[in-house]
Amino acid sequence: MTAHTRDSKILHRSLIRHPETVISASGSYYILSNGQRILDGCTGAAVAVIGHGDPDVKAAITEQLSQVAYAHTLAFTTNSAEELASTVLDGNPFGLCKAYFVGSGSEAMDAAMKLARQYWVEAGQPQRRRFVARRQAYHGNTIGAMSVSSNLARRAPYEDALLLDKVSYVSPAYAYRIQKEGETEDAYSQRLVEELDAEFRALGPDTVMAFIAEPVGGATAGCITPPKGYLEGVRRVCDRYGILLVLDEVMCGSGRTGTYFAFAQEGRVHADLVTLGKGLGGGYAPIAGVLAHQKVIDVLTKGSGVFVHGHTYQAHPVCCAAALAVQRVLKRDDLVAACAEKGKWLEEELRARMAHRRYVGDIRGRGLFWALEFVKDKQTKEPFEPDLHFARNMTDEAQRLGLAIYPGTGTADGYAGDHVILAPPLNVSPKDLGILADLLERAYDVVEGRVCWTN
């Protein structure tokens, strides 16, 4: 920790624990001010999909700055924004035809919520005022996005004060904790779909605007994956009542799970609105976006002809240029397919090394997006007490050894439970993947020993 970090005027996430200073980054590694080299095994929060310091992205940013750094979208557009939208929406995948670029995943979710509301107002059904979302899900930190999230720790200070009140929740697709003993995958999937259908009917289907879900769960529950047929069933139920389906791919999208859209692995599924973020800009610039289906755009076009929403920095030309360069690297180097292949190796390695460990309850994920959930008792799945800080101990020990991983708490029920996420760059080398597995195992050994000793 440097002196200026100790005396920092930054309001860091913690007022007690001060972060280490990164002085450079290249490929899959950070270099800290103390000289330590850290393998970026989580890319922040599954952000740096092509690693750090890519020369093509740096060149694209510099070139954009030499052309135009900023133009307000009320009056102007830029080539970088237009080309980014054309690249992401090439061929109108799954009927998605328009992109709205903002600065963060939270802003993207707020924009999606407003698009959903405006859609129904202009479709002549203004009585649709409700959202349905899932427990143990996270959709962002702004007031709107937090209102459809269920990360209890992040909501707690603002509950009953600032959050929207027209949101209800159904069960997450969390097989480790919700699938019953002896229940088949098909039966479990059908039970979740029936629960959603029952919630729509209880609310009155014509009062619901949209159902919001992560195709693969993010940081709140740690890479939970849906059972086969679940999202197809969700799509059918939404269609039955005319309810919009909003899929949040801010964390799991942009190739992270081995297909560009995570929902593409779920059969005959399409979304009315999709949010993208982290991997869109790969950490080179703050950018996220909402992708809208032709159905949504047609209603607005025939109605007011405008989207009643706006941000000063939306479709920022430098951010769009950075994201465009990232997307071109993903395509040029076929990194999405590479992610799927490397993910198979990582899954096998994690299961071989960690599944039998005393406190590893579950290993789950897809592509290069994996989580380990830790439990006190593997038979009962009882989580550790929150004040033990198992996940934080894991990340601290891993960083001491030279590996960055992403911690999660409240995994089981919003209060108790621990997991860590692994999400290295999609172009991580096989050698560095091996190092990641080695360091994770070493970190776990230390923490397990510490817990056994104290218990």
TrEMBL record:
<dbReference type="Pfam" id="PF00202">
    <property type="entry name" value="Aminotran_3"/>
</dbReference>
<dbReference type="InterPro" id="IPR015421">
    <property type="entry name" value="PyrdxlP-dep_Trfase_major"/>
</dbReference>
<dbReference type="GO" id="GO:0008483">
    <property type="term" value="F:transaminase activity"/>
</dbReference>
<keyword id="KW-0032">Aminotransferase</keyword>
<dbReference type="GO" id="GO:0030170">
    <property type="term" value="F:pyridoxal phosphate binding"/>
</dbReference>
<dbReference type="InterPro" id="IPR015422">
    <property type="entry name" value="PyrdxlP-dep_Trfase_small"/>
</dbReference>
<keyword id="KW-0808">Transferase</keyword>
<protein>
    <submittedName>
        <fullName>Aminotransferase class-III</fullName>
    </submittedName>
</protein>
<comment type="similarity">
    <text>Belongs to the class-III pyridoxal-phosphate-dependent aminotransferase family.</text>
</comment>
<dbReference type="InterPro" id="IPR005814">
    <property type="entry name" value="Aminotrans_3"/>
</dbReference>
<keyword id="KW-0663">Pyridoxal phosphate</keyword>
<dbReference type="InterPro" id="IPR015424">
    <property type="entry name" value="PyrdxlP-dep_Trfase"/>
</dbReference>
<dbReference type="GO" id="GO:0005829">
    <property type="term" value="C:cytosol"/>
</dbReference>
